[in-house]
Task: structure prediction
Amino acid sequence: MPPICQICDGAVEEFLDLGRQPLSDAFLTEQDLAGEFFYRLAVGVCRSCTMVQLVEQVPRDLMFHEDYPYYSSGSSVMREHFETTARALLARCADEPDPFVVEIGSNDGVLLKTVKAAGVRHLGFEPSGKVAAAAAEHGVRVLTDFFDAESAAAVQHNDGPADVIFAANTICHIPYMRSILEGVDRLLAADGIFVFEDPYFGDIVAKTSFDQIYDEHFFFFTARSVQAMVAGFGLELVDVERLPVHGGEVRYTIARAGARPPSDAVGALIEAERAQGLADLVTLRRFAADTARVRADLQALLRRLREEGQQVVGYGATAKSATVTNFCGIDSDLVSFVCDTTPAKQGRLTPGTHIPVRPAEAFADPYPPYALLFAWNHADEIMAKEQGFRESGGRWIQYVPEVHVS
Ligand code: SAM
Ligand code: TMP
Ligand code: ZN
Result:
């Protein structure tokens, strides 16, 4: 029996198996090692609606809980991105007498703090306790709960309809999509907009960024699959916009069916996806072959450097790096430690491969000869602040879109 599509119940055809993987954001203490959770990370395409998705689900409470360690405000580029985004969303509901903005996955308040500062009614849904508390410290109104059909209905009852429902890097995390879209249908005002942005499958294939595939990233959206996904809920995809953040994303704007005319960008992106062959098995199998090639190249480089006695340090203990390190068998023998600015990750071990995580300051103490850039989506920001590394003779190793040293 093939796996079943979480959107349309169609048959899902697997095209890439990334093997046994741990929870990507479970940074471990020595005591945690014995009970580490693993699952099979594999991805397939629905032969009916073209949605690309994982074939196995990890229970949501194992991923999003009190100690979830990802803080969105850790990147200055992302802080700026969300401030600009918040201003754009506020402009879109400026004509309403008392607008109401809801965010799904509001994390540490990186977006809603600008909405709050503008004095606009808002609410964030954020199930992960400590990041939600960080937002509340900024005065952001947060419900420490998962967004779904029931919690959305309760908010509609208490606060009334939402003019804007926004989500970044969250909708693709949610396998129970029918409940989400039912929730949007219950909460959204008649002329409201549901806007979400997530890593774009077209960029993932074009850049062979297979590390975007991990437990939390359940769906890999295209304009075509999102259009089909929302249509079953009386909703319509009315705009798409490509974004440079996190290695390439698309922002999807959804309205009630017939409420707003779709922009030309929707049809143009769907046509570009057809030309790229994003729903074709031949393209998807080529992506799997490219992924295997990147693994072989990265393994060969790291093994050669080990033989030469050259130290390699990882930069950024990203969730994505769990896929790379576990798929490629990169442990502390090949990468001596990973530095990261997040206090909740420091002093712990990376999931599955158990590489120590150290504070960012450890990077320069002293600089290693090679750094493996796990946070490649933040390359510009990191290279700008780590100029001393290159000046010391250090070299960056990257693996997107292919393995290269610079
Ligand atoms: N929006 C932020 C950003 O773009 O940086 C945070 C993204 S973070 C990768 C995903 C967030 O979604 C986590 O904080 C997680 O706790 C939250 N989340 C997961 N499932 C959710 C749900 N059903 N409703 C609301 N938030 C959810
Ligand atoms: P992300 O790619 O999922 O946003 O995760 C980025 C990780 O990299 C996160 O743990 C924070 C860390 N990081 C640094 O250590 N230094 C930096 O300059 C940036 C931007 C991120
Ligand atoms: Zn489907």
Summary: Residues 72-279 form a domain with the Rossmann fold fold (CATH 3.40.50.150). The pocket of zinc ion (ligand 3) is lined by residues 5, 7-8, 10, 46, 48-49, 51 (CB under 6 Å). Residues 281-307 form the longest helix (27 residues). The two ends are 46 Å apart (CA to CA).
